[in-house]
Amino acid sequence: MPREVTSRYIDPLTQVWVTAARRIGLRVIRTPDAYAATDGRGTLAIGDAQTLDADDSLAQMIFHELCHSLVEGEESFTRADWGMDNTGPDHDWREHACLRTQYVLSGRHGLRGLFAPTTDFRAFWDSLSGDVLADRTDRSVQAAIAAIRRAALPPWAPVLGEALEATARIAQAAAPFAAAGDRETLWSAITLAPAPHPTGLPALAATASETNGASPSCGTCAWRYDQRGVSRCRQAQAKVDPSWPGCERYEAVLDCQTCGACCRAAYHSVEVARRDPAVKAQPEYIVDRGTYLEIRRNGDRCAALHGGEVVGERQTRFHCVIYDDRPRTCREFTLGSDHCLTARRRVGLSL
């Protein structure tokens, strides 16, 4: 008598990531006609078993595509292939940003080996180590920082984090069953998730040589400040011990000339008092709005801010052409302050 089949088996990771994609807003289909593609209408097409390589997994492919969506922003869900031109001049740095994002998010859960990419950019992935967000002049780093911040927002949150946590639990259970030294199975690449930083933020896996020579500790972090003799962190909004190792948001140095955040898109208006010496010293940069004065804007930046042009994958240094005559508002803006952190976050320079 034939048996009636009432259920079907699905690989656990496939179950996790297909469901996660659906909750985020994507329907996953398998096809022999593409490696990975989106149609801008809610469908993510992934190659079938014959299309993919032996070290591919559907889970990794979905995670990789979600990292692309993080880099490109929520509007990319309405664009085919996330709005990327796979042959254009911006393709490489966007891929690099995706992989930096993938490296950080998977690393929080010990999943870098399991979720390593299998594309032509694998060599770039293999070159990553330590603090992959350290070089803030690199366009791909800036885009990755913005992407990692988006991961904490809808539609990705809380789904993406829950999927990574579930994957880590499955991976930790499966890893002991991989033969010792058996490099033919990705389960042998599972590592323990790093312990959280004492503040509760993700830990930083980096050495002094990977953070501009500074020891990556709370004591050498640019976001530490002293309040009434107590060390505090602007990122964690908590007391810290300077001897603690640095967290994922560690920054050794804040350099205004590689930033310029407070003078560009982070803020849309800088008001100037009518009696400010800058009004007479630099009248061509002052605009009278009737009830108030403000610095003239040039697009999304202060007209006095020069530099920041993109050359290859990097930005040139910024400088203020009226620095000696800058208004009091600018003079009182403090490097490393709460406003500084807000500005850097808004332009993708700080987590």
Keywords:
single chain, about 350 residues, alpha+beta, 3 domains, 3-stranded antiparallel β-sheet, 9 helices, 15 strands, globular
Give structural notes.
The protein has 351 residues and is of the alpha+beta class. The protein folds into three domains: 12-164, no CATH class; 196-254, no CATH class; 257-334, no CATH class. 28% of the residues lie in helices and 12% in strands. The strands form six sheets. A three-stranded mixed beta sheet has the order 1-3-2, with helices on one face. The chain has a three-stranded antiparallel beta sheet with strand order 4-5-6, with no helix packed on it. It has a three-stranded antiparallel beta sheet with strand order 7-9-8, with no helix packed on it. The longest helix has 17 residues, at 91-107. The termini are far apart.
Radius of gyration based on Cα positions: 24 Å
Largest sheet: 3 strands, mixed
- Global morphology: globular
Number of domains: 3
| Number of β-strand runs | 15
Cα(first) to Cα(last) distance is 62 Å
Question: What's the tally of helices?
Answer: 9
Low-confidence stretches: none
Structural class: alpha+beta
- The chain-level mean pLDDT equals 92
